[in-house]
Amino acid sequence: MVLVLSVLAVLAGACSSAPEVASTIDMEDNFFDREVTRIAEGEAVRFRNRGVVPHNAIDVDGAWSTGEAVGGERFDLMEPEEEVVVTFDEPGVYRFYCSLHAPPDGASGMAATLVVGDVDFQAAADDAPEEQVTEWTGVSRRVPQEHPTIQNAVDAADPGDLVLIAPAPETPEHLADDGRYVYKEQVDIATPYLTIRGTDRNAVIIDGEHERPIGINTVAADGVAVENLTVRNTTGNGIYWTEVRGYRGSYLTSINNAIYGIYAFDSTDGLFEHSYASGSKDAGFYVGQCDPCDAVLTDVIAENNGMGYSGTNASEVFIVDSVWRHNVSGIVPNTLDSQRLPPFGRVTIAGNLIHDNDSREAPALSLQWSAFGNGVLLTGGMDTLVTRNRIVNHERSAVTVGPNLSRNFWMSGGNVVTDNVIEGSGYADLVLAGPALTGNCFDGNTPSRTVPGALETTAGCGPDAVAGAQAAPADPDRGAFRTPSRYHLAPTLSFVGLVAESEFGLQPVNDYRDTPHPPDQAPLPGGVDAPVVPAVEVFAGFGLDLDDIEVPDAPAELVVDRASAPLVAGVPFGMGGFSTLFAVLGWLAPFALFVSWVALALLDLARRDDLGVGATVAWTAGVLVVPFLGAPAYLLAGGASLPRWLRWVSVVGATMVLGVLLGGAAVLGGLL
């Protein structure tokens, strides 16, 4: 079969030389936007990454891939906003998949079909669901004693079996560059209700060798538990579940997996526990696109990642009793249009030790850099509870509640932040960035500085405030006192400055492969002899009692050492030139302009003797009550005695200059 490829890889906005295309297939996070695409012979398809993480498109039969099409390798990834155009001259049905988010057969996950020419095609009917298996079958598939590879054992296993993995044989083919003996394979799991267990968490290692995209890849296989092993050095995800009901990751170690460490997507009823993740550019732990997720993260450690936790469009999640340290940012539930089910909501963050998440040495994607320096960052979400955490040493903030700009503009509302112990925040301990929806409240957090000021007074919570996972409908229980506006625009504009830093190449560039390896981690109690339990009814069986969670103690080695940055009307100085620039242009400059207009108008009104008392009072009231409209209206149309050129330069000219500066800053910062 001859397949002729005509290819052009371009960045968004530079498409003038691209061949004419019949159809565009957008790569979202983590799905193709069209399940079936039909084109005629000789027509072209544009693959466009509109997500915020890398993707690719690979034909399951090996005929083509977006990587090979541009002269690269089969599994090469397309970065966000990158495009590849492929022309197909040969009729046929091409099933394709993303190597980070689907199995190689394209049977599930991020996969779709391209039909070229007048050929018969009917989408396959969905398979009947597997019967649920709640107990171990008693069968153990041993690697390498009975099966030479983990994949061989997985393929031989039946639902309910245990795949028990000993350390890799000490043979040359298993020897890694660092002298460890490892399994050099990607494990794809399609059989439900398996338990994948290492005999030694620190010695059973699956190594991607910086060539394979995933370590353990569970797609559309319910009830799979993975325990007591290490996955490292993949080009994408360490340990991954997608499209499943029931999953559990226990006593896992993820080291230097490029994008995500331990990751559940489009899945429900899950648990990550007693696990460690470091060296991932997006997030060490990730739960995404689920509502309800019915997921719990407990007793996990995330360090040296872009984000410790990221949860895009993930609702009904508990993040408790864990450690988040030395990441670019700590815990970041967020809303994006690149995934389904926006916005996120009903997340509970409680009892965590969150410190020093302002690392300039951890690897990070550009989007992760925009969250730099925050312990907890809620962007564009609803009804989340942040309570009884210890949050220390962050260049920006301990807790920020704010909006997120994706294709839509998502504001936050109904979030409750109470009873946290906060120290060492450079910008502010508590931030309510605007614009914001109603219902966000803060109480009992002992902050030393908030933006806006006195936030716990102007946006305080009542004693019966409700929010979070599995809670009653959110209610801040504010009481009678409310101020007209309780958010501040300056921190939002300051965040835009971090986006601009990334656009200008000022973000630190750190290779995920260079992240230091951790010491040995605690093993699964009982090891080989621990009970074998498929991941069924995981959430219901966890038994979380939020009332039992307390603020964690501070480790003896934790020293509070972040100094407060100087602020002027909420605008930070000394935290990066772009952060200051955007906040000045978007916040201080308009008010400076307003003050100058009001001053000119009032000065002129005071000097005029041709106006009656009524007209003077009316214009003065208009200038003061409706300042951004009243003062310019008076100066331009109210008969002001000031020179005409001064009035037009002050109002029209200054407004145009500010508009040009803001527009230029938005373009340079990558917002337009």
Q: What's the gist of this structure?
A:
The protein is an alpha/beta fold and 672 residues long. It has 10 helices and 42 strands.
For the secondary structure, the number of strands is 42
Residue-averaged pLDDT, rounded?
90
Total of helices: 10
Q: Distance N terminus to C terminus?
A: 44 Å
The CATH superfamily label of the domain at 8-116 reads Cupredoxins -  blue copper proteins
Mind telling me which CATH architecture of the domain at 8-116 this is? Answer: Sandwich
Structural commentary:
- Among the domains are: 8-116, Immunoglobulin-like (Sandwich); 577-668.
- 18% of the residues lie in helices and 28% in strands.
- It has ten helices and 42 strands.
- The chain has a 19-stranded parallel beta sheet that branches. It has an eleven-stranded parallel beta sheet with strand order 11-14-16-18-21-24-27-30-33-38-40. It has a four-stranded mixed beta sheet with strand order 1-6-4-2, with no helix packed on it.
- A hairpin with a 3-residue loop joins strand 34 and strand 35.
- Helix 5 (490-503) packs across helix 7, helix 7 (577-607) runs antiparallel to helix 8 (613-625) and helix 7 runs antiparallel to helix 10 (644-668).
